[in-house]
Amino acid sequence: MKAKLVVPREVASRDVDEAIDHYLGEGAAKAALVFVDALEKAYTHISRQPASGSPRYAHELNLPGLRSWPLTRFPYLVFYFERDDCVDVWRVLQAQRDIPAWINES
Prior knowledge:
By secondary structure, the chain is an alpha+beta fold. The chain is 44% helix and 23% strand.
């Protein structure tokens, strides 16, 4: 299967910026770089195998087609929809947060 383009929404990009700012604010520049690497690996995975993400929150939030994929070594989930021509990344959220409240935030 051909890899699909991963297209993060503006709010997903803000989520990523906030996570990086958090690590940098803690004086953990190396962690910030590793976070970016983990995110890139997650994006690569979902671009190649978008159906492999968990549909758990799709049921909880009544958003058919919503899937999530965890970042390796970080407590973050990438929330996305598979479209015909791309993977539409909605949010990148810390897994310990109130996901239903955060997923609807814009």
